[in-house]
Amino acid sequence: MSVRFRFRPALCAALAFVAALTPVLPAGAEPTSAAQGPPRLPRHLSARAWVVADADTGQVLAAHRPHQRLAPASTLKTLFALTVLPRFDSRMRHRVTSRDLAGIGSGSSRVGLRIGGTYRVEDLWRGTFLKSGNDAVRVLARMNGGWWHTARQMNAKSRALGARNTHVVSPDGYDARGQFSSAYDLTLFGREGLRNREFAYYARSAYGYFPTPRGWVRIDNTNRLLAGSHGVRRYPGIIGIKNGYTTKGGNTLVAAARRGGRTIIVTVLNPQSGARNGVYHEARALLDWGFAARGRVGPAGWLPKPSG
């Protein structure tokens, strides 16, 4: 039986009081004594919702509006991959038709599939994870039995995992009426995904190669903490997972990193500061805090036990 995360007002107030008296540790610093107390949470966090969790134990270290229902943008592709990835051999080939790409949203991110082209399933997943290609999601969903069938499967998968604030209408994460997820649920999906070898492989790939009529071309991951691009430094120990952007959802990110044998996972939804690359800066600060806080804060809640 899964245990849902709930606020503990008295605990949170006590931690906030102690944190206010505690100096900020340098990034990546390790505590020298439990008597130091918990580190101070990063300042200037503007995200509408966020979660920091220990991916190994499932302990939620800190959170802000973790169950608020928000547009997830392409971070919803984590749930899509959890649902569809096990269904096809990565070497399987598929010839793209016009019906495969019917209905794709205007302005959607694409990896560049062409009608009549033949692609391996692993090419489609690389396009999904690295370039957030909604065209690749459309093809995989059609192979899986169709768009609405896939959405229903994703909803069933989310419930089975213990997610209670996710409803899928558009499997690629494109804005759709009635579609939502939460920082808690997306953290859960990211943690579950890292347990799958193929998911983890695609999620951590900074770049890959994709077939075109002119030959293989390099594609870079749009997750800037992973690729180290557009003025954002690669985060030490980063292992993925998925970023996104839509008009309604703003910038969204599920990111995980591993240091000293521990994995910290954070989800940041829709920063309001307006700062360039704000979602990456806030995620970086929360990852730093998560590593510094290990063993120094009590659980504010728990993620459900992994499936299987």
From TrEMBL:
One GO MF annotation is: carboxypeptidase activity
Q: Where are the transmembrane segments?
A: none
* Cross-referenced InterPro entries: Beta-lactam/transpept-like (IPR012338), Peptidase_S11 (IPR018044), Peptidase_S11_N (IPR001967)
Where do the Peptidase S11 D-alanyl-D-alanine carboxypeptidase A N-terminal domain residues begin and end?
A: 44-271
Query: What Gene3D superfamilies does the database record attribute to this sequence?
Result: DD-peptidase/beta-lactamase superfamily
Leader sequence segment: 1-29
- Provide the alphabetized UniProt keywords: Carboxypeptidase, Cell shape, Cell wall biogenesis/degradation, Hydrolase, Peptidoglycan synthesis, Protease, Signal
Domain of life per record: Bacteria
PANTHER family under this entry?
A: D-ALANYL-D-ALANINE CARBOXYPEPTIDASE, D-ALANYL-D-ALANINE CARBOXYPEPTIDASE DACB
Q: Which family does it belong to?
A: Belongs to the peptidase S11 family.
Indicate what this protein is called per its UniProt record. Answer: D-alanyl-D-alanine carboxypeptidase
Species of origin:
Streptomyces polyasparticus
| Organism lineage string | Bacteria, Bacillati, Actinomycetota, Actinomycetes, Kitasatosporales
